[in-house]
Write a structure and sequence with these properties.
The complex is a heterodimer of chains A (441) and B (304). Helices cover 68% and strands 2% of the residues of chain A. Chain A is an all-alpha fold and 441 residues long. In chain A, the strands form two sheets. Chain A has a two-stranded antiparallel ribbon. In chain A, strands 3-4 form a two-stranded antiparallel sheet. The two termini of chain A are 18 Å apart. In chain A, 41% of the residues are buried. With 304 residues, chain B is mainly alpha-helical. The relative contact order of chain B is 0.20. Classes of the chains: A mainly alpha (441), B mainly alpha (304). At the A-B interface, helix 2, strand 1, helix 10, helix 17 and helix 19 of A face helix 2, helix 3, helix 4, strand 1 and helix 9 of B.
Chain lengths: 441, 304
């Protein structure tokens, strides 16, 4: 909307320098007010009342806002107003790509499947790929809740934490293996989802968001303070790595035990464990994907989408909204639980600082920025949001600043997410010609 | 009994601060129906600006404490309100009329941005200030336990009452208040009858940020310790207060704030202090289950 306004104001016949300069001047004035104290003065740490003045910071901030605003106005003013806002080339490229969706998917999964076996794959790369896969899985899990059922859950990380802690506690106290704990941890997380969801799912969207956010914080506070069970803020260490059909990944197996490398008669390498972990999360993530794709066609999945589109209409058709929402909430929580168990076993230790609100925000950002309900969008967004900060370690301190700014910018630019191009799950009658082209729904 | 009285005083002070911030949430929700997730960060920015102003004044050597507080209040409100305005202009206005979740997600992004913005500019370490207003009344004394009502606590409560009264007048009597109430009911109709909706919304954000700035000045004076992370939890609780009181209702926000402040103070005093946040959120959940419109909110009519 704003961009169109700008086009109207600065477009017209030729470049209107007066209007542009006035507008940029106003922006610079605002920047001056905003930056004067926070840029211009630096408080000293702790008490003592020391100050450090840095007027140049203010000058630079104001000058860059002036220049930036003028440049944007010039750029938009010399183009057709509508094209700046709608970005048709992006939608056109998307539409063309989505015609070869199956091919793209197949190619992508092939690439992902052989990635760790490639000669270029070193420890760091496999580790990063595993990290991205965790977030892809979490994104797909949350996509069931947010994308399909339309319930905004800001406390998804709570179920991730429940999964991680139940896996760890089960594994340590009952000496169960990863494969036995995984379904149990998922079930416990799902149970939590149902228990927490039951009282709050009657609420409207925004309230639900805040209550789930509150739950996320509550779980974290309890994890920190219930030291007897959870180890407090220190967390729990010494979580065992899963075994490959009973074969452990260790250079020095105990007496009478065969390690992975001995069984296959290959030299020991630390990367075997990482590759094994990578394949576990790949399978788990694919499971999540297949599950939600299947669900879309099943009555329950359709009920989710119907409820998202119009709750009153679905209720009047006989759907029980609480039951339908609860199932989405519980299933979403279950996948978070699986991912949590995997996270615990990969790290080898867990503590509450891994489960802060910012994690929830990142997962939600992956779902929303990718385009709600879009499975491919989740992959793209996870790669961008997880890989970019990891690769740009030099900008580590600007990481979250850019992250927050990008969330705002993408929302303003494409409110329905990057890949908002969605095909309906169920269609009445034949597909109309040209339906696959065109902009967001 | 004396212990109880002291906790009551502490809880009311805390509640007044939550109430001031909650008004910002409730007004914005009332007028454009979105949760301004970044409002807690506006309060945090207000605290930083207040601390910067106090330190600058301290260097210039202003002797009169009330004068210093007055000057800092005015300056902080102005500068913080500019942030409130800018946030609305950049992150929310382009999204008006967009689908329901877009502004909320934009607001979350804005909150993360502002938090890191302040962290980068001012450093991650805690900032502190020596108390400026010291002393107070001794209300009662028994068996060596003094119940004190400090001058600072009196200032906070008095200022809150004055601001509340002023705000109720603004909403009920002035043209701006009428415009706000009109936009709350029907933006299109309000625009048709000559109200500048954009301007009204901007002013709402300015006012909300101004109140958050007052809360920031007060907490900086009273508690004396701030860091870039304080906005998150306080914002969450202030929102809880707004929902508790009934979102969209100004007296409700104040009442909710005071209730949350009391719950927190008493829970910390009589039960486990580390679970006081859990108590505040549990109250929110209970209220939403049994009285979804809040204590003083009007029931919402579902239209097909």
């Amino acid at each position: 909307m704003t961009t169109v306004d700008l086009g109207d104001r600065f477009g017209g016949d030729g470049v209107q320098w007066g209007a542009i300069l006035k507008d940029a001047g106003m922006a610079a004035l605002v920047a001056l007010v905003l930056s004067l104290l926070l840029f211009g003065v630096r408080l000293s740490d702790g008490g003592g009342g020391g100050l450090q003045f840095r007027p140049w910071w203010v000058v630079i901030a104001v000058a860059s806002v002036f220049a930036g605003r003028a440049a944007v106005a010039l750029w938009i003013g010399t183009r057709k107003p509508a094209s700046a806002a709608a970005l048709p080339w992006f939608d056109r490229a998307l539409a063309r790509l989505s015609q070869h969706k199956r091919l793209l998917f197949a190619g992508f999964f092939l690439a992902v499947a052989i990635l760790p076996l490639l000669p270029v794959a070193d420890r760091r790369m496999v580790d990063l790929a595993t990290l991205v896969m965790i977030y892809v899985m979490l994104g797909w899990g949350l996509n069931i809740v947010v994308g399909l059922a339309g319930l905004l859950d800001l406390g998804y990380v709570a179920f991730y934490a429940v999964g991680a802690y139940s896996y760890t506690l089960l594994a340590i106290h009952f000496d169960l293996s990863f494969w036995a704990c995984l379904p149990l941890a998922g079930a416990i997380a799902a149970l939590f989802g149902v228990l927490l969801g039951f009282p709050v799912l009657r609420l409207r969207g925004d309230y639900l968001a805040i209550v789930t956010l509150g739950f996320g914080e509550m779980v974290r506070i309890i994890l920190i303070n219930w030291s007897d069970l959870t180890g407090g803020s220190e967390g729990i260490t010494g979580i065992a790595v899963p075994t490959f059909f009973g074969l452990r990944f260790t250079p020095t197996p105990a007496a009478g035990e065969t390690a992975f490398h001995q069984f296959f008669a290959i030299p020991f390498a630390g990367i075997h464990k990482l590759i094994f972990l990578y394949y576990i999360i790949l399978v788990l993530a694919l499971l999540t994907h297949l599950f939600s794709e299947r669900m879309r066609g099943l009555p329950l999945g359709r009920a989710w989408e119907a409820l998202r589109e119009d709750e009153i209409a679905s209720r009047s058709l006989g759907l029980n909204p609480v039951l339908v929402k609860l199932s989405a909430f519980g299933i979403g929580a279950m996948f978070a639980g699986f991912a949590g168990s995997f996270f615990a076993t990969r790290q080898g230790f867990i503590n509450p600082s891994s489960f802060t609100f910012i994690e929830s925000a990142i997962i939600l950002a992956i779902v929303v920025l990718g385009g709600m309900g879009s499975q491919v969008g989740v992959i793209c967004a996870a790669m961008v949001l997880i890989l970019l900060p990891e690769l740009a370690r030099d900008f580590a301190e600007f990481r979250m600043l850019l992250f927050g700014g990008a969330m705002v910018a993408i929302m303003v630019w494409r409110p329905r997410g990057l890949l908002a191009h969605r095909v309906p799950s169920v269609r009445l009658g034949p597909e109309p010609p040209g339906a696959r082209r065109g902009g967001p729904p | 009994m004396e212990y109880f009285l002291q906790q009551l005083i502490n809880g009311l002070t805390l509640g007044a601060v939550y109430g001031l911030i909650a008004i910002g949430y409730t007004m914005v929700y009332g007028i454009i129906g979105m949760i301004n997730f970044a409002h807690g960060e506006i309060y945090m920015i207000g605290s930083f600006i207040a601390l910067i102003c106090f330190t600058i004044l301290g260097l210039t050597g202003v002797a009169s404490v009330p004068l210093a507080i007055l000057v800092v209040l005015v300056v902080t409100v102005l500068f913080t309100a500019a942030y409130g305005w800018a946030v609305e202009r950049l992150a929310y206005r382009p999204l008006r009329g967009s689908f329901r979740l877009a502004p909320l997600i934009s607001a979350i992004g804005m909150a993360i941005f502002l938090q890191n913005y302040v962290q980068l500019l001012q450093g991650a370490r805690v900032k502190a200030m020596a108390p400026m207003v010291t002393g107070g009344f001794v209300v009662t004394e028994k068996a060596g336990f003094q119940v004190t009502l400090s001058y600072m606590q009196i200032t906070i409560m008095a200022l809150t009452v004055v601001l509340m009264a002023g705000f109720s007048l603004v909403i009920s009597r002035t043209a701006l208040g009428r415009a706000q109430r009109a936009c709350e009911q029907d933006q299109k109709m309000a625009a048709l009858s000559g109200i500048d909706v954009d301007r009204t919304v901007s002013l709402t954000f300015l006012l909300g940020a101004g109140l958050a700035a007052v809360a920031g000045v007060m907490t900086t004076l009273h508690y004396g310790v701030i860091d870039f992370y304080i906005g998150f939890l306080v914002g969450l609780k202030a929102f809880t207060a707004a929902v508790l009181g009934g979102i969209g209702s100004l007296p409700g926000a104040m009442l909710g704030g005071i209730l949350i402040g009391l719950v927190e103070a008493f829970w910390a005093a009589y039960f486990a202090a580390e679970y006081k946040d859990v108590a505040a959120f549990s109250i929110l959940v209970l209220v939403l289950i049994f009285r979804p419109t809040g204590l003083m909110g009007r029931p919402e009519v579902e239209k097909v």
